[in-house]
Amino acid sequence: MHFEYQWGRTLARIEDVMAVFGLQCREANAIIESKYEQEFIAHRSWPLYASYIEDLTLRSANKWVDKYSEERAVMWDMTNLPVYAFSDTDL
Predict the structure, then answer these.
(1) Looking at residue 13, what is its pLDDT?
(2) 29 vs 26: CA distance, rounded Å
(3) Whole-model pTM above 0.70?
């Protein structure tokens, strides 16, 4: 129920959640808020960055060693960021 509501697939409104599962508004909101709280706590428990030793261990696969040897590659996750495309000639 929570993922359907969170990602807006079929239960995009709280009214839909209430109708499908027979919940009161307060109950539906309590479930959704508790799931968001669990996600937030889990997210905050993950380290923001890997240490240098962790990074070396995680990229021990041959493709990373062959490509970057001893350099430390930094990759930016641009998922869901509204940025300009480099192919846009007007910019």
Answers:
(1) 83
(2) 5
(3) no
